[in-house]
Specification:
- By secondary structure, the chain is α+β, with helices and mostly antiparallel strands.
- The chain is built from five helices and five strands.
- The chain has a single domain, classed as Hypothetical protein (Archaeosine Trna-guanine Transglycosylase, Chain: A, domain 4), CATH 2.30.130.
- Strands 1-3-4-5-2 form a five-stranded mixed β-sheet.
- α3 packs antiparallel against α4.
Length: 121
């Protein structure tokens, strides 16, 4: 199955360069459909560039903190960040009430092919 998602510019470039191998999301209804072997097409916001990844694993955690305690910061391209900083950066995107409602998911991804990064506007 193929899924579509947006990524902010810095995160998009980090994933395109191969520095980010785990994408963090709320485990909402849309993300619950993502399974190992699925493809995700990420679109850079703003800009429109796209890259395609294959999901190698999707691991559910009750909170961002639990996720960040279990997975090395390097997998998020966040070496040098504290867990508190990582959690707070997620709360800038996702409200804590949604985290409590849905939990979180770590999507372990692999870039399909660097040549498949499609330039947008």
């Amino acid at each position: 199955m193929k899924h579509q998602m947006g990524l902010y510019e810095e995160t998009f470039h980090s994933m395109a360069a191969g520095r980010k191998s785990v994408e963090v999301r709320l485990n909402d209804e849309k993300r619950r459909r993502i399974k190992a072997g699925d493809e995700v097409v990420f679109t850079r916001v703003p800009g429109g560039e796209q890259l395609t990844v294959v999901v190698e694993n999707a691991v559910v955690y009750p909170t961002f903190r639990a996720m960040f305690e279990a997975i090395p910061a390097e997998a998020f391209d966040a070496a040098g960040w504290t867990i508190d900083e990582m959690v707070e950066s997620m709360y800038e995107i996702y409200p804590p009430e949604r985290e409590r409602e849905w939990g979180t998911v770590a999507l372990y991804v692999r870039l399909v092919d660097e040549e498949r990064v499609v330039r947008g506007n």
